[in-house]
Amino acid sequence: MGINVKNLVKTYGDAPIVHGISFTVENSEFVTLLGPSGCGKTTTLRCIAGLERTNAGVIEIDGHIVSDVQKDIFVAPHERNLGMVFQSYAIWPHMTVQENVSFPLTVRGIKDTDGAVAWAIQAVGLSAQAHRQPSELSGGQQQRVALARAIVGRPKVLLFDEPLSNLDARLRDKTRTEISRIQRELSIPAIYVTHDQAEALSMSDRIIVMNAGNIVEQGTPKQLYRWPATRFAAEFIGAANFLSLNFRDGHWMTADGCAIRLDGSEIENDRSAGNTRQAMVRCEAIDVCPADTLPEQDQNLLKGTVVSVQFLGAHFEYVIEVNGVRLHALAANEFSMGAGVCVLFHSKDIHLFPDTTNLD
């Protein structure tokens, strides 16, 4: 039955933090709350966990109401049958791995008759370290202890509050793979809070983008990356360029009068003179080529000047000025500062926003 959040409101004093948001998480679904610091995503997660009391709204877990202010219902966190992994490892330094993992069962008076502790430790790949102290473990191993502790009671829901932010890049990649694998094996709903777009894109079945206590947009990672409905989501999920287009003389045109080809699947209506739209092109979709390059049939070509270049190993990161507009590109070709170049991008890589009034 998953998780159902209806009209959730949370304030601290007179300051509203979450503004009546609603969403559901289906059984076995992995949903990420993504947004900048202070947007309300962690507060939302803590309300679901019962670590914060809501000011309004209803929260249901597995078909049972666990919070309803109007009906004076509040189920304590330890009675919600959920597992939570925090940003800090929050493991006991004086306990072994096995003792840390068994702690939730111990405080609930549950005897480990079915080998749940051994199963949880094995699930996160720490069987060989079961009798070690936390001080003898790496940061990634300590976070896996926290994950094992969260799943040992076979919870109905898994909650993650930026669990990888304290790990280095390689450990983050490895641990997020482990989290995804374990969640799929348990086949239970999970909510994951992060501001890291790579985590959200790689792990999620669905992403909910939040800002200033509101849900801005939600969809699959592919939908939000390729076809966002709002500029906020487009900018927060990946690097992007934006062009203002005006329809005139039968074509969508840039401000300097360059005609732009659009893919047939993009918006074809509202082709009236003076109509204005915003177009998005992802940085990696742009090719940077010598100034005399001729475009392919479905390519758009703009001429510009390199004003910034950074070598990032697998590619160069460019800032190219095109008639007063600065475009960012990731390309393999090497050009020096001040070089005149062609900026090329295929029509299929342009996303035309449906309405310029819906870009917040």
Kindly describe this structure.
The chain is of the alpha+beta class. Helix content is 22%, strand content 35%. The protein has eight helices and 21 strands. It has helices at residues 41-49, 97-107, 116-123, 139-151, 169-186, 197-203, 221-226, 231-236, and strands at 3-12, 15-25, 30-34, 56-61, 64-68, 73-74, 82-85, 157-161, 190-194, 206-211, 214-219, 240-248, 251-253, 259-260, 276-282, 287-290, 299-311, 316-322, 325-331, 340-346, 350-352. The strands form four sheets. A six-stranded mixed sheet has the order 7-8-9-3-10-11, with helices on both faces. Strand 10 (206-211) and strand 11 (214-219) form a beta hairpin. Helix 2 packs across helix 3 and helix 4 (139-151) packs parallel to helix 5. The longest helix is centred in the middle third of the chain and has 18 residues, at 169-186.
Task: For this entry, give a set of tags.
360 residues, 8 helices, Rossmann fold, alpha+beta, 5-stranded antiparallel sheet, OB fold (Dihydrolipoamide Acetyltransferase, E2P)
Short structural description:
The chain has 360 residues and is an alpha+beta fold. The protein has helices at 41-49, 97-107, 116-123, 139-151, 169-186, 197-203, 221-226, 231-236; strands at residues 3-12, 15-25, 30-34, 56-61, 64-68, 73-74, 82-85, 157-161, 190-194, 206-211, 214-219, 240-248, 251-253, 259-260, 276-282, 287-290, 299-311, 316-322, 325-331, 340-346, 350-352.
